[in-house]
Write a structure and sequence with these properties.
- The structure holds 3 protein chains of 3 kinds.
- By secondary structure, chain A is mainly alpha-helical.
- Chain A is about 65% helix and about 0% strand.
- Chain A has 9 helices and no strands.
- The longest helix of chain A is centred in the N-terminal third of the chain and has 26 residues.
- In chain A, about 20% of the residues are buried.
- By secondary structure, chain B is mostly helical.
- Chain C is mainly α.
- Chain C has 2 domains: about 400 residues, no CATH class; about 70 residues.
- Chain C is globular.
- Chain C starts with a helix and ends with a helix.
- Classes of the chains: A mainly alpha, B mainly alpha, C mainly alpha.
- Chains in contact: A-B, A-C, B-C.
- At the A-B interface, helix 1, helix 2, helix 3, helix 4 and helix 5 of A face helix 1, helix 2 and helix 3 of B.
Amino acid sequence: MIAFWMLAPVMVLCAVGMLFARKAVHAALLLAVVMISLAVLYLVQDAPFLFAVQIIVYTGAILMLFLFVVMLVGVDASDSVVETIRGHRLFTGIVGLGFGLTLVLGVAQVSFGTVIGLDSANEQGNVPAIAEVLFTRYVFAFEVTSALLITAALGAMVLAHRERLTPKPSQASLAAQRMRDYAEHGRHPGPLPPPGVFARSNSVDTPALLPDGTASEASISRVLAARGTVKSVPELSDEIKELDMPEAGE
Amino acid sequence: MSTTPFIILSAILFTIGAVGVLTRRNALVVFMCVELMLNASNLALITFSRANGNLDGQIAAFFVMVVAAAEVVVGLAIIMTIFRTRRSASVDDASLLKY
Amino acid sequence: MVNLEALHELPPAVGSAPTDGAFSLLWLVIALPALGAAVLLLGGKRTDKWGHLLATAAVIGSFVISLILFFSLTGRDSGDRQVTQHLWNWFTTGSYSVNFDLLYDQLSAVFLLLITGVGSLIHVYSIGYMEHDVRRRRFFGYLNLFVAAMLVLILAADYVGVFLGWEGVGLASYLLIGFWQHKPSAAAAAKKAFVINRVGDIGLSLGTALIFITFGSTSFAVVSAGSHEASSGALTGIGLLLLLAACGKSAQFPLQSWLLDAMEGPTPVSALIHAATMVTAGVYLIVRSNFIFSLTEDARTAVIIIGCITLLMGAVIGCAKDDIKKALAGSTMSQIGYMVLAAGLGPAGYAFAIFHLLTHGFFKANMFLGAGSVMHGMNDDVNMRNYGALRKAMPITFATFGIGYLAILGVPPFAGFWSKDKIIETAFADNFLVGLCALVGAGVTAFYMTRLMLLTYFGEKRWEKDVHPHESPKVMTYPLIALAVLSAFGGLFTLNSWISDWLAPVVGEHGEHELGIPAIVMSLIILVVVALGVAVAVQLVGKREVPKVAPEKVSVFTRAARADLYGDAFNDEVIVKPGVAGIRGLAVFDRSVVDGGVEGLATALSAISGRFRLLQNGFVRSYALALLAGATIVIFALLAVNFG
């Protein structure tokens, strides 16, 4: 019960936090806290198998999937807090409160009798016991879930599939396009110069130096340039000198 | 170890999830709230399993997880498709089916 | 011993002796023209060449059979002259059964001879008259159809069978009036005839229904046997409905207006259908239903009144018409008025009604065909103001027409004298006023017929420039001669009261009517009145210049007579306009009240729905909120039940 009383307030707070988190990422992280806490509560209640499954499937797979989608949809997209449907928030509050109170009070009224506990059921260990039940009494339902999972996977593929509207470009056509860009816009036809020719630690943030000693803009990521984490040429020149010195000293 | 606190916690989490589904407009967050509701029900199932002394409740929770996994896969694919065509993940934007 | 007094009181019942010998040919009388019509109308162009000959042969065949049957009938005892031929059971519903039976008795026999005889002559005449018409085959097909339907009408032994023939002749009449359908006036006249005839047909169908309700059967045999047991109210109702039917078919007031327009049809049609046979079907119906009319004084009075009104109306209209066919049509109306009047006089008059019907069939068909002959020679001009002095150009037509003229005037010894005199005498015996009407009618008849004769055959030539009158071909004049002979000697039927005795088993006996004055004096009075009419006509028409165009400045009466005594205007005002107004009112009622109620309900529902519809705002979250609220209520209810 100690674990319960420690985790329950955290879980409720995190859940309430989900309601108010403006960014989807924050909501996902708060959900992760709730789920891991739940996993612990499963363990407390003699369900070690589901504890593992909860961590692996929910926190590991499902929440990761959520985060991927959040990434695709846009991390920055944050909700507006203004309610658009008139009176919706008020009614939701009333109904939600009524629902919660009804449930809580209803549950509080009921006495569930003496707790039997799973000691006898888990005599040979929780996992073999679950396996025995799953593969005997629930074997048909178990088989059906396999069909469900395959269907879900297929459905996801169908939904995510995008029809190709233009013919697939061949290598020759790509090359021709590149040459055409060069002819019309003077774009460099060859591969971009790699960064960090003279790098020491993190070569990606170090631009390549052109033969005249200037840094090549094309050699570094634009994101890094925007963040301003790229080392400037004057900074580099010192290092170059430093590098040159011992050679000169020799 | 009494069961009532677990059940009440489950009820509270379920209610918070429901309210979240109703108030949030971002489809992803709505979906997370649905997951929260499912988890809350799982907690209740496992608690009842312990109270009754057999594993059927745990099996049920297991199946809920399987179904939730499948649901998340398809649901997220749908959200992606909608986002791709509408550039929006708001559930209120998909409101053409009305009077 | 038969109770003589009872026999005197009750109308005779229709017998039902089975057919044997020659009478088994009875069905053939109908079948021949029906077959002719079928061949001509279904055969198409293949029958164009010989169709008219086949049609004529079919009718002549019917006539020959009719003659054989007639003489077979005369060979029998007078009490044994009713023959019924059972053909087949038409339909049976519950206890009600209608057999397709043919009844051949003295009345049918007379009609059979008239229809097939005059019909044959008119078929022959039509061969010449319709020679140049491209649709001649169709014309003869329709004529045959008419003859067949008319024979069904008079031979049927059941009111339902009569109704079949009644509708058949109505159809044939419609087709033949509108035969020259390219003329809008003909098409309109056909429609008018059809529609007004429907009014009368309603009378017949309702009358038949009432007969069925009263007697449980519609066959003549059952009805005539049971008529004296029926209530007087039912009999009067039946009588009035049958009178309505007769008014429609026989162009009696107030359904008379179609007959004048029906002259748009070819002249042989006017002669056969609208003078000699079909229009007399009403008279036939009344006489045939004598077992009903004899027992209901009220209905008979109505018949007499209708007959009086029509005979005067027709005569007055005939005075003012310049169209030769319309003048004759007015005359036809008037003469049928005489017959209806006679029929309304009860057993005393039935025989004279039929007799006048016969003689009228002869002389009116004769005159119509004569008029057709004149038109044939005058390039189909019907305006008498363009005739004049035709007696030399068309001697045969003139001679035959003249005999018809003398016959309709009632000059002895021509046919009309015998029949019309009897009617007027009987009318006087019944009621002085009725007799006076008939007498005045005779005078007016003399006036307009003389006017017609003078305008057509005497006086100056008023012909149009390119008209060269000539005598018609022999195929047309021979029927004229035949009919003229009949017009001249048709009166011989009444020698020694033959026609009355012949028909007595059908229509009942009657004692000698009591006239205050000797019959010969009566005849003289009538002749004087007729002579007066002739003299007035000679004075007014013969001695004066006949203007080319009808004068405008005429008396109110002439104007009224030219407008058919405002028959059409009356129909317009009394029936058409209120009908149209009523239907407009109904339309408004339908639109405002019925539609308003229905559409108002729909609008209200739609408005309420519009309010509720706003709940469907398309937001998933709103729906989910409703779902949660519902779940809350369900859980609350469950808890309340458990803990309550």
